[in-house]
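>> received
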Amino acid sequence: MSGLVAIYRRELAGLFVGPLAWILLCIALVLNGYLYSVYLKLGTDVDAAMRMTLGNSIAFWVLVILFPPLLTMRMISEESRSGLLEFVLTAPVTDAAVVTGKFLAALTFMALLWASVFVYALATQSVGPSADWGIVVGGWCGATLCSGLFCAIGLFMSSVTSIPVAAALSATVVNIGIVILPLLAGLSDAPWVQRVTRRVHVLDHLQNSFLFGVFDTAYVVFFAAWTAFFLFLAVRTVESRRWR
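>> returned
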């Protein structure tokens, strides 16, 4: 895709030039580091503390639900409002490259954010028992894939509105729905409801595979397919702007 690298570098640089990304990064590092130390002080073993940090705690889901919309809310909506998007679309770059480059920039940021768990594992290993590196690496991959799904949703919402705040709020609502609805639907005794919710159960696909150091391709495909779906919607929306 022509221009993808240029878009990616531009968006990634833009994230780290502005204060928002640094504020989010500091909040995540302080919160995760503090909670990880609390888990250990409460007598939780290293592997369980790592699982809590990467998917088995409310703090993780708050971060993974809220941060991607905040990162992506301006990527398309702000450019659309300012007229910069029209300039980008007239350049020799495809719509898919524009959306994918922006997505990869947001995904890179989230991957760096969750990479702090490697520091926690090394610090714990230097003073006590070693963490299971399969859980560390698997948990990081799972957290990154899950963040990628929510980044794709954020980009799609950013593409359908010219108001960044509206994009962030709508993406957050969709993210919450994706996480909560399968849990609520699971209360139903209807077999078909349970079968359907299993196919969109983000918590199940993260907590029952990656957090145990298991790399099942089915779980990877789950996140990749849903991410690709929302990116496709974002590309189609941007494409419609080109023809307006």
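>> The first helix runs from residue 4 to 17.
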